[in-house]
Write a structure and sequence with these properties.
The protein is α+β, with helices and mostly antiparallel strands. Helix content is 61%, strand content 8%. α3 runs antiparallel to α4, α8 runs antiparallel to α10 and α14 packs across α19. The longest helix is centred in the C-terminal third of the chain and has 58 residues.
Amino acid sequence: MRTIRIIRIALTFTRYRLDRLIPEDFPLPVWVRIFIAPIKIFPVPKHTPPISLRLALESLGPVFIKFGQILSTRKDLFTGELSDELEKLQDQVPPFDSDVAMKIIEDSTGQKIAEIFSKFDSAPLASASVAQIHVGTLHSGEDVAVKVIRPGIEKTIRQDLSVLFLIARIVENFWADGKRLHPVEIVHDYEETILNELNLQLEASNTSQLRENWLHTDKLYVPSIHWEYSSINVMVMERIHGVRASDIATLKKNNVNMRKLAHLGVEIFFTQVFEDNLFHADMHPGNVFIDITDPENPTYIALDCAIMGSLTENDKSYLAKNLLAFFHRDYYEVARLHIASGWVPPDTNIDEFESVIRNVCEPIFQKPIKDISFGKLLVSLFQTAQQFDMEVQPQLVLLQKTLLNIEGLGRQIYDELDLWETAAPFMERWMAQRMGIRATLKALGKNAPRWFEQLPELPDLAFTALRELNHLGENTRKQTIALTSLKAEIAKQGRRSRSQRIGGLALIAAIFSTMLPLAGYADVREVLVGTSILGSLGVYWMFIHP
């Protein structure tokens, strides 16, 4: 099946002549040029290259559509036409049959459509790579959105994942930087992420948690879930109304405060990552809407919470310290933290590493997004990673993907955005809350009830610990005796083995010495004496010596 899938991908590339998207002067490896050369004999389709790319990604399924969605946020890297076409992958993927969707809803809920909804629109409102959305009205009068998983989509996803695993293993085994990039581990993480998207109960749970985190903030709104109608492949939630985050024309037409909106987005992101430790990891414009009821104080609306991320306390701490050091232009500290965290080898020259980090970071410091060349920055970071054998951190890949989306979205909303202006004060407050006397007292207050609850058990715990220490001491004594005996036996066996090897050498030497006279190298008497001595030594070492 994997071979068939690879052939289909290659045929799709050929059918749509995607080679047209590659600039003539682009430095491709020779083997890639050899692969592409035969494709040029096929006819050019009527569609433009951007449309061809979008159609090709749509035809190949969800894994490729997800890739296109990420690219769609990078308007700084692609032409307007290409970005506009890729943007259609966010919610304009061809839908599946509405009758099939309604059958899935009825089978999932055990009720007829008319029993659940007073009104149901069979035509989908939006259609994406994994699911499509229908709208309706419950008998209670509440407007809802109904998300339905595409039938048979898991089989296609698993086929594509097997291809990705094959590519990852090839990269890891045959490319010099392969092991450092951990491609197989990254694909494993991606596999877990995209398969989680097929479980709408998990998405509903994520949505409820995110809603709870932001319910009373007036900064981010998350729709409520109707659990009674939701299952693995169907989710019914509150219908929201807003302006798509990428609809810049409508936002400006309504005099939305774009600067405030952009800074609010940065604040929401950092709060999710560092305070809530639950961040929305699929923030492409199709999943982000804006409530412009009050244009001067706009708020965000988050949809599609299937992909959520979190970090360990260690990763959060190192990341926060790195960011703060970067904001303070303390590049030596950035270098030290990278070594301390194990992100670069421990024998790295810290002064040399600091110098390279300074060269990469200083040109973009305190510049608005519009003045930062993301492409050049990526190249610089990749070269730095190669130079210092910096390993990819698979646990941070989801965060990096989210940053990619957030940065692309911020560039569209307000390209004068200064990340330092918002992010630096936030990180300083967060670190201050985690360190110092106030943070210590807060931690003591948080843990005190649990400690008091365990206090009556301390005498029993102490007695048990002492008893176990006594048992441990006795076991240690027995193990020491056993190890001493074993060591003596091993030494004895070693001596016997050495004796046998020496004896064997002596016998071989004796046999060999009988051959010397034939070559004229010794007197016969000398040979007989030597043979007798060596033979005796051999017998002694093999059979008599202990």
